[in-house]
Write a structure and sequence with these properties.
94 residues, mainly alpha, 66% helix
Length: 94
Amino acid sequence: MTMIYDTLKNRLTKDRPMTSITLRIPVDVVESMKTIAPYKGFSGYQALLKSYISEGLRRDEAQFTFSKEAKLIAALKKLGVPDSVIEEAARDVA
């Protein structure tokens, strides 16, 4: 629970370090985002894109980082259980 709290607390900090990245996105996708952005309350497509990334990241973090399964895997690794054994057990469960 502490890990979740710390992650969320850090996300709410307004002065987090930022970095610039370059993405190649099809022109029609950018045009669609420019059209959709005002309907979702965003001033431009870049803010909408950041929102989409944040939504996907939160969903994936919930599934892969904060889930009971992820916590179990982390605990097993901490106890020295080899990745190969964990992967084999995951295949057996699936």
